[in-house]
Amino acid sequence: MRLSPEPFSRYSFVILLALLLGTGACSTDKNGDRVLFAIEEDLKLGEQVALQVDSTYRAKGQLLERSNPRYRTAYAFLDNIVERILSSGEVSYREEFPWKVTIINDPETQNAFATPGGHIYVFTGLIKTLDNEDQLAGVLGHEIAHADQRHTVKQLQKQYGISFVLSLFLDENSGDLQRTVAQIAGQMAGLKFSRDYERESDAFSVVYLAGTNYYACDGAAGFFQKMQALEQSGNMPEFISTHPSPGNRIHDIEQKAQQVGCSTEQKPTSGYAQFKSSLGL
């Protein structure tokens, strides 16, 4: 992202920091991390970003609305995957976040992303490219991990500093905030996390899927194998442009699956074929 917040004076920063610390927000979160920002801030930012993302793709005619009966079957299929992952017992903020999945109709884009606070977006190009439900569950597990481990807020803090993130959360009625939310929303699909965050999300995807006792826990490896094949054929998928190359990630995911000792047996593909058919893919 390329955001340009106004610089803060040291005095302003101290006041803002004191205000936030006075709320008791600086504590250990459910993941065991010392964080400056309360989970409510993830929810607040995520809701505003999701509204902006929805508005953008709705204006383009690409947002597949949940209220449309035509997509009821597809959303039921996706919701079942998410519910199995959330029921794994491994998602820290299962109850706090909405965990809403939305489909964006773009058959040429093989990508997915999550906002802070658990709003997940999946492009039809990714759904079309994948072979089975286990691979899609691996992708959703990866994106759920980004939100559950609060990677977006941590990335913003690392990239732009505490004073910027403080201004984002405390000055919520300012024009600067609204412009910043629009910028974040416009670049969520292209947000690049650190390699550490990507590896962490890959590992949690294995743990989540293992906890379902339903999916092949290395489903994300199958997804990356598909992305690697596209990359090698010269058809660079969108996901590769915003995530580190598959390479060692396939090996690491398979190694994590061995470490956990979970099943890697894939489910039949017939249900996934019906899911794609319901979307006209």
From TrEMBL:
Q: Give the signal peptide, or none.
A: none
User: Per its UniProt record, what PANTHER family does this chain match?
Assistant: METALLOENDOPEPTIDASE OMA1, METALLOENDOPEPTIDASE OMA1, MITOCHONDRIAL
Gene Ontology terms: biological process: proteolysis involved in protein catabolic process
An annotated Gene Ontology molecular function:
metal ion binding
**Can you name this protein?**
Putative Zn-dependent protease
**InterPro entries documented for this protein:** Mito/Outer_Membr_Metalloprot, Peptidase_M48
Q: Which domain of life is it from?
A: Bacteria
Instruction: Tell me which family the UniProt entry assigns to this protein.
Output: Belongs to the peptidase M48 family.
What this protein needs as a cofactor is: Zn(2+)
List GO terms (cellular component aspect): membrane
Q: Where is the Peptidase M48 domain?
A: 78-255
Describe cofactor binding as the record notes it: Binds 1 zinc ion per subunit.
Q: What is the organism of origin for this protein?
A: Rufibacter quisquiliarum
An example Pfam family from this entry, by short name, is Peptidase_M48
Alphabetical UniProt keywords: Hydrolase, Metal-binding, Metalloprotease, Protease, Zinc
Q: Which PROSITE patterns match?
A: PROKAR_LIPOPROTEIN (PS51257)
